[in-house]
Protein 1
Amino acid sequence: MTGRRRSLSSVLPRPAGAFAMRLILLGSSGYHPSDQRHTACLLIPEHGVMLDAGTGMYRAARWLQTPQLDIFLTHAHLDHVVGLTYLFSVVRQHPLDDVRVHAPPEKIEALEQHLLAEPLFPARLPCQFVPLTGNVALPGGGQLAAFPVVHPGGAVGFRLDWPGHSLAYVTDTTADPFAPYLPQIRGVNLLVHECYLGDAHAELARRTGHSYTTAVAQLAQAAQVGRLVLVHLDPTSTEADPVGLSAARAVFPNTQLGYDLMAIDF
């Protein structure tokens, strides 16, 4: 890691004497960027694996350590995919031999017909689209599995496993301690889960296909995960703690609030 990267106060030191994989939150907001946060984009730099491509995508070149990039999309809503149009800037700053964008076939079709339609974006992206229809082998001996979650328009969550390391990423769905996807996330070292609203707005969260604080914590407890990080936060909130972190910790103590450029070892 370069001196420039070490100078960022958001980067947390790796545990002494322990090997850990690192996840960087390039964007931790939902719906639209704010003065504090960009929209959903997560990166595992050492393996060139990205989860969603929101507005935080432009930061990727600073962290990438590989000549290839695999981008996995949970769904095609704009706050999760608009960063694909930033790829030219990323590859100019960090040359890439191969960029693959993985998504369910119907999402790829929607992207090509709409986001990348010539009147909107007349240049062909420097990537190839790969239909996501099953498990995917990852660099370093890992594997990614996608599973369906309930959200308007359809979405998937991801579980990523390497020997000794596991991560689940779930966004744009309504959390529940009996959620159908609980078996897919059970026992992971790290669960990164959306928490768009606090408990006071639980009904609005349910009505719009999103999650609220206590329900996410109950899910983490039921799934017996090692650590919970809350992301996809409401961008209209200017509070340092927009979702009521204490409510989550009352149920699942090992909970943290995600923030842009947060580095998480798992």
Protein 2
Amino acid sequence: MTTDQGVPNGAPIPDLAELAGEVISCRRCPRLVAWRERAAAYPPARYATEEYWARPVPGFGDPAARLLVLGLAPAAHGGNRSGRLFTGDRSGDFLFAALNRAGLANQPGSVAVDDGLVVSGVYITAAVRCAPPDNKPLPSERDNCRPYLLRELGLLTDIRAILALGRFAWDAARTSLELLGQHTVDGARFGHGAEMKVGRYRVVGSYHPSQQNTFTGRLTPVMLDRVIVRAWELAAAD
């Protein structure tokens, strides 16, 4: 694989491509480096014949996006395997199906970086770029990754709304926007469907489309559809 996968939808955007290259080469967090490489060295049987990406995973999407979809981190056997966020795992199946229903993705799923997925008006990224043990990054790991999100927000000048998938992403969105000089007008608590205004941005909360949430019915397709529609309304409003 090459850093081309970090260039939104294959478009030649030099600054985002440069950032993707920096993300991919990052080794700031020894615990995460060891974990992502161990996951690749000892995969489950269903992936035993596959070559894992096993590096940090950059964001991807539309360089003119109005909506940023912010997740927690790559899955050990999803993005850490495929090299693209939400690609090749059950969370991604759930998310891309919803984006497709909303007209923001050209297909309802994604299994590999070369499977033809294109998202429109949306950029997808994560608060942490390496798969963490138990999906729980340490505060220091979160802080090490924050500059990448700050730079993405600076480069994606058309973003007006953020769909935060989970509490971790919600907190990361607020902190990052405040560090960029945006003032929190409404500091609502995280919840599914919660909204928060931070400067010129609107943040919408959603339960994360993890199997823990989708298999138990805590997050249903209808629930995710509604928050995506609302986030897109806010993103396109001004």
